[in-house]
Specification:
heterodimer; A: 260 residues; alpha/beta; Rossmann fold; 6-stranded mixed beta sheet; 9 helices; 12 strands; B: 338 residues; mainly alpha; ABC transporter involved in vitamin B12 uptake, BtuC; 79% helix
Chain lengths: 260, 338
């Protein structure tokens, strides 16, 4: 499957934030979005999700326009993991994940045995089955993020769109989420993820799209696109990129900002 | 499995609430200026036989309409409150957030001013209740562009509510203080003392249909608490669902207020108490509010008609009981779930 945004102008009302955006994501692929705060990453996400209508151009899922697809059908194919936030009511973790089954239910029905089995599967897949009966609002930020990812999995989508999934997490949880992202990609899900850390793009060994100057400035495979010059241009900082762990066979690139 | 255990627990709580409501209903038949022994009532219900000649009249003509009305009003207001709290993602919301009560109050006041009969008062209260919701929704539509729709809805409700409050004051001001002013004031305090079986028959089917519809939508209501965009990404048509629920809850409130007058607090505190007992899942919360609200208002009405020789308006008692009860519920539930 593929989700494709072609020659689209994105923005609010008549105000265009991003011009002439073209991006294609396939299942089994991770695409990371980089760009500084306020560059328009969220705008791009909202357009991809069909929450924000495109001003010009179109967004297509396997060739069919998403604005004609209908919410339910779209939600069966594309799931969204927003940044962790407060919920007004103390739902349990199982209940929250069960809400991921909504697009598979008819309007007046409630989840059945099969849905509950899928929920258990998703919890186990993310190793959070032990949290099942806890109250969502009382979990730590990292745990909440895992639960929301489980909810996205319960939708059984082809694509998961994640908005800075590691933003409020500690070092350990960040690493865990990134490992999960890689695992999901290997299970042939398509993942589109916004991040603030170029390092994470290398960790995902992903394709990258850089939002800059009101457009998709550069895109391609991380090792080719993310260079010292590019990071200097986007973030206005001096960075050294080097390869580490060559000896242990776990070679990977890292970015080291030069602190004056 | 653990999930099943939780559902079983929900089932037990609902059963307990149902039995509780049945006993309250039974007690309510027995309480009154002329008290009837419970065994006699049961005997009459199951066999149709009686020794006391007053018993059938008291039960069928005097107490039944009133008990039915209290049950309908209690559950309707509570369910509307629970739905609104879920919809607005805010547990501090009550069913008259969109100005239904104030609108209905003005409708009734106007009808009394114009010397309409009972039916006229009821109709005017109903119509103006809906007018206020319609106004609030239209204001929201005009103001919302790019802004948080929930916040705009609440603000619009406040605007409409204050407007109708002012109009109520105006109606009171021009009313003659001998007859009409007391009538208006009394109506605004809420009471079931002038209820008849005909009026109950009129509202009963409307309320049942609306409650059923709300119950069918209750599971989806959960998902709205994640907010507009997240709910959409889960495949919910948020606009349509929200308007349906607002329409149901407002119709429900307007229908009830039109026969009872203004009864505060029920729609605010009962959903809290129910949430405390059964958890936040609306699929269980809506029926729990339904049962608990009915029992609560019935008890309050029992108090209203038995505490003194003069009937105390319902709205006064719900407020006197409601305020401290709400305080207690907030303290207890903050220790437990939040």
């Amino acid at each position: 499957m593929q989700i494709e945004i072609a020659h689209a102008n994105l923005g609010y009302g008549k105000r265009v934030i991003l011009h002439d955006v073209s991006l294609t994501a396939e299942t089994g692929q991770t695409i990371c979005l980089l760009g500084k705060n306020g560059a328009g990453k969220t705008t791009l996400f909202k357009s991809l999700l069909g929450i924000l209508p495109v001003i010009a151009g179109k967004v297509q899922l396997d060739g069919s326009d998403i604005s004609k697809l209908g919410r339910v059908e779209f939600a069966r194919l594309v799931a969204y993991v927003p940044q962790a936030r407060m919920l007004p009511f103390p739902f349990s973790v199982r209940e929250v994940v069960l809400f991921g089954r909504t697009p598979h239910l008819s309007p007046f029905s409630v989840p059945g045995k099969e849905d509950k089995r899928i929920v258990e599967e998703c919890l186990e897949m993310l190793h959070i089955a032990h949290l099942g009966n806890r109250t969502f609002t009382r979990l730590s930020g990292g745990e909440q993020q895992m639960v929301i990812i489980a909810r996205a999995l319960a939708q059984q989508p082809a694509f998961i769109i994640m908005d800075e999934p590691t933003s409020s997490l500690d070092f350990g949880n960040q690493t865990q989420v990134i490992s999960k992202v890689n695992e999901l990609k290997n299970q042939s899900l398509g993942i589109i993820m916004a991040t603030h850390s170029p390092d994470q793009v290398f960790m995902c060994d992903a394709d990258v799209a850089i939002v800059h100057h009101g457009k998709l400035w550069k895109q391609g495979y991380c090792n080719e696109v993310i260079t010292e010059e590019v990071l200097r241009e986007v973030y206005s900082v001096d960075v050294t990129i080097s390869d580490v762990g060559r000896d242990s066979g776990q070679s990977r690139r890292i970015c080291v900002p030069n602190i004056r | 499995m653990v999930q099943d255990k939780k559902i079983a627990r929900e089932g037990w709580v609902l059963l307990a609430l149902f039995l509780g409501l049945l006993s309250v209903i039974l007690v309510s038949f027995s309480i009154g200026r002329y008290s009837l022994p419970v065994p006699d009532i049961l005997h009459y219900i199951f066999t149709g036989k009686y020794n006391d000649n007053n018993l059938p009249i008291l039960i069928n003509d005097i107490r039944l309409p009133r008990i039915l009305a209290a049950v309908i009003a209690g559950r309707g207001l509570s369910v509307a409150g629970a739905a609104y709290q879920g919809l607005f993602r805010n547990p501090m919301v009550s069913p008259d957030i969109l100005g239904v009560s104030q609108g209905a109050g003005f409708g009734a006041a106007l009808a009394i001013l114009l010397s309409f009969g009972f039916a006229g008062i009821q109709l005017m209260a109903f119509v103006f209740g809906l007018v206020s919701v319609f106004l609030a929704l239209s204001f929201t539509k005009i103001m919302r562009r790019g802004r948080d729709p929930i916040l705009m809805l609440v603000l619009s409700g406040m605007i409409v509510g204050s407007l109708f409050n002012a109009l109520i004051s105006l109606a009171k001001f021009v009313a003659d203080s001998e007859y009409k002013l007391p009538d208006i004031t009394f109506w605004l305090m809420g009471s079931l003392s002038s209820i008849t079986i005909d009026r109950v028959k009129f509202v009963f089917p409307i309320v049942i249909i609306l409650l059923l519809l709300m119950y069918m939508l209750s599971w989806r209501l959960n998902i709205l608490s994640f907010g507009e965009e997240e709910a959409q990404s889960l495949g919910i048509n948020t606009g349509r669902l929200r308007v349906t629920i607002i329409a149901c809850a407002s119709l429900l409130t307007a229908t009830i207020v039109s026969i009872t007058g203004l009864i505060g607090w029920v729609g605010l505190i009962i959903p809290h108490a129910a949430r405390f007992l059964i958890g936040p899942n609306h699929r269980a919360l809506i029926p729990a509010s339904f049962l608990l609200g009915a029992a609560f208002l019935l008890l309050v009405d029992d108090l209203a008609r038995s505490v003194s020789s003069l009937e105390i308006p319902l709205g006064i008692i719900t407020s006197i009981i409601g305020a401290p009860l709400f305080f207690v519920i907030l303290i207890v539930s903050s220790k437990k779930t939040w």
